[in-house]
Amino acid sequence: MQNTSKQYDAVIQKCRALFVNKMSDYGSAWRVLRLPSLTDQIFIKTQRIRGLQQNAVRKVDEGEESEFIGIINYCTMALIQLEKGVVEKPDLDVEEATKLYDEKIALTKQLMMDKNHDYGEAWRDMRVSSLTDLILQKLLRVKQIEDNSGKTLVSEGIDANYQDMINYAVFALIHLNEK
């Protein structure tokens, strides 16, 4: 599992660098997005990945990797929004946003390590397409929870679903980098 931790960190380093660079370019404009808007952004990325996996022809010169990175970053933004709430205008500088990003990723990685221990790294034998489908399933769950005003009877909340999507996307990127 030590290898998994290092591989996870390498993927996140790339995602974090893009997040920081986009924060430098755009500021924290994403802070005005409500959770359903972030969920829909993740949905768009997941649908594109499925299309890339199913279609022989590509009309945009970007592959799955950039979309999985987008899923990780949008899910992390959603976790920050869950904690801080939506604002009417951008309110985070690069340093504060990066600190929050790091906190959410650290919690998500710990969840991955705990589950990875219990599941015996089963994800290593999964296909990238299956990980994509699991992300889509989690998205549909999140949409249903959002439609239920955030309430669940027996299921985990929105935050756990965003964390699982991050971890599935990291696993997919590890697989893609091992090809």
Blueprint (SSEs and pairs):
Blueprint: H1 2-26, H2 35-54, H3 64-84, H4 94-119, H5 128-147, H6 158-178
Helix pairs in contact: 1-3, 1-4, 1-6, 2-3, 2-5, 3-4, 3-6, 4-6, 5-6
Give an overview of the whole structure.
This protein has 179 residues and is mainly α. It contains six helices and no strands. It has helices at 2-26, 35-54, 64-84, 94-119, 128-147, 158-178. Helix 2 (35-54) runs antiparallel to helix 5 (128-147) and helix 3 (64-84) packs antiparallel against helix 6. It is globular and about 45 Å long. The chain starts with a helix and ends with a helix.
Approximately what portion of the residues adopt beta-strand conformation?
Answer: under 5%
Into which percent range does the helicity of residues fall?
Answer: over 70%
Tally of individual helices:
6
Major sheet: none
The average pLDDT score comes to 94
State the order of secondary-structure elements, H for helix, E for strand. Answer: HHHHHH
Question: Could you say which structural class the secondary elements and strand pairing correspond to?
Answer: mainly alpha
Oligomer: single chain
Low-confidence stretches: none
